[in-house]
Amino acid sequence: MDEQTAGTGNPRPTSRLVVDVVRALRGWVVAAAGGVLLLGCYLGVSKQTDVALQLPYVVSGGFGGLALVLIGSALLVADRVDAAQAAQARTKGQIDDLHSLIIAAATAGIEDERAGSPAHASYQGQQPPAQAPNSYVSTPGHRG
């Protein structure tokens, strides 16, 4: 549902905004149809004074309208749950990418230390610069 094919046969993603709007609109349309049925039920029942003549309105319009309102609400809730899961999946993917970058940077840093890189040569044989108390900045070779 989220992909369309342009004449080449390659799938291309559609706009997420359009998909989200259509999904939300679907729930609102079903709930609004239920509201219209409930209104029709009310108008039909209010014209009748005999209870036996009111029952067909309640059964056809009232229960049907209530069912449509509940289905529309369920569609809206399902849409929000789906959106939250998609956001969670995107966040998980970003965290995995960030983790890979951190591991790659740490591995490159260890390889640079072993090779005696010039970036770390300035601290060899010297005391690392003093670190301010309660500082969250870590300097190479300093434990604290």
Gap between N and C termini, in Å?
A: 54 Å
Work out the radius of gyration: 32 Å
What's the SSE pattern?
Answer: EEHHH
- Give the overall pLDDT as a whole number: 78
Q: Looking at the structure, what is the overall shape? A: rod-shaped
Task: Summarize the biggest pleated sheet.
Answer: 2 strands, antiparallel
Structural class: mainly alpha
Instruction: Detail the poorly predicted runs.
Output: none
Report the β-strand fraction as a percent range.
under 5%
Number of strands: 2
Order the strands across the largest sheet as they lie in space: 1-2
Number of helices: 3
The percent of residues in helical segments reads over 70%
Layout of helices and strands:
Blueprint: E1 3-5, E2 11-13, H1 16-47, H2 51-115, H3 118-121
Characteristics:
single chain; 144 residues; mainly alpha; two-stranded antiparallel sheet; 3 helices; 2 strands; 4% strand; rod-shaped
